[in-house]
Each structure stands twice: as structure tokens, then as C-alpha cells.
Design brief:
alpha+beta; Protein Transport Mog1p, Chain A; 2 helices
């Protein structure tokens, strides 16, 4: 059930409203999911897409800038958690274990962020993509009630440290309704 999905491009436009700014001065737009009870802010000008992929609802926020044939992106994967998997600590560990076993890479803890009164650990690992630049995936995981939310930032290797603060701000602005 806990399948990790990497960077994704999808279809179907979503609704966006307002235009406040991040701490860094970047204009942001507020997004309210139609499928799951949450909202967050994302950089104004980024594309929005929504889809269902292998049973997970995905909201994708995609940078308009192309770097080495790749668009930086933040994805939110949402799924329902079976009642047998209700322990948040065990879910976090299972998620990290799944990343390590499926990717065969060294996962690095790169920080933490407060989201909905929980401290989320951000983990990161390199992701090789054939025919493209080397990528880095940064992920945080939020179990909430009977749902799990996976947040991923996928960027060209070398840009991750620049984009992680923006990723953290998007996570901090994530609100369950």
C-alpha cells in the first residue's frame, strides 16, 4: 500500500486564487484541492496538474523554467490509510524504508518542518534518470487521520539547496480543512 511515486507530470487543470508573497518575496497563489481537504501556497506562474496514479491522488506544481531538459516540481500524493496502519511513527519509518529498498540509495536527512502541529523530517536522495540530468528528490511525509500525504520536490542536482526553502514554505502553508 505504501508505494512511493517519483516525479510526475499529469493533466487536468486545478483552481487557484489570491497572490500573497513568500518570505523571500516570491509571489504565491493559494491552492485548494477539490479531491482532498487541504490547501497550500505555491509560486505564481507554476503550472498545476491533478491526476490519479496507481491509486494515489496527485497534485503537481511544475516550474515554468527548464533546467537541463527538466522542470523542477513539487508533488503532493494523497491516499487513504488502512486502519491497520494507523501508527504515524511506523508509517514514517515504513515510508523511509520503502524509499531505501526500492531505490537502493543512501537517504539523507536534510532538515525538518512544522506542518499541522507535526514535525516532518525531510529526506533526500539522488535519482538517476536515463537521458536526462541527474535529479535529486526531497520528500516529507504527513500521516493525518486516515490519510497519508507525501510531499516531493524533484530538481536538477545542484539546485536542491536553493529550492528546499521554497519547498519548506509550501509545506508550512499546507492546511487541512
Amino acid at each position: 500500500m505504501l508505494r512511493l511515486i517519483y516525479a510526475l507530470t499529469a493533466t487536468t487543470a486545478l483552481i487557484a486564487v489570491s497572490a500573497p508573497r513568500t518570505q523571500a518575496g516570491t509571489a504565491v497563489t493559494t491552492f485548494k484541492s477539490k479531491s482532498y481537504p487541504y490547501s497550500l501556497v505555491y509560486p505564481t506562474g507554476w503550472a498545476l496538474h491533478s491526476t490519479v496514479y496507481k491509486g494515489l491522488h496527485v497534485d503537481a506544481f511544475i516550474s515554468p523554467t527548464v533546467k537541463q531538459q527538466f522542470h523542477d516540481n513539487v508533488n503532493i500524493f494523497a491516499s487513504t490509510i488502512p486502519s491497520s496502519l494507523s501508527n504515524p511513527a511506523a508509517l514514517r519509518q515504513a515510508n523511509e524504508d520503502q524509499v531505501i529498498s526500492s531505490s537502493h540509495v543512501k537517504v539523507t536527512h536534510v532538515g525538518s518542518v512544522r506542518v499541522n502541529r507535526q514535525t516532518l523530517t525531510m529526506i533526500s536522495w539522488p535519482e538517476a534518470v536515463t537521458g536526462r540530468s541527474a535529479l535529486v528528490v526531497t520528500q516529507a511525509f504527513l500521516p493525518a487521520s486516515n490519510r497519508a500525504y507525501y510531499f516531493t520536490l524533484t530538481t536538477v542536482q545542484g539546485d536542491e539547496k536553493t529550492l528546499r526553502p521554497l519547498f519548506a514554505q509550501m509545506l508550512q502553508a499546507f492546511h487541512l480543512r
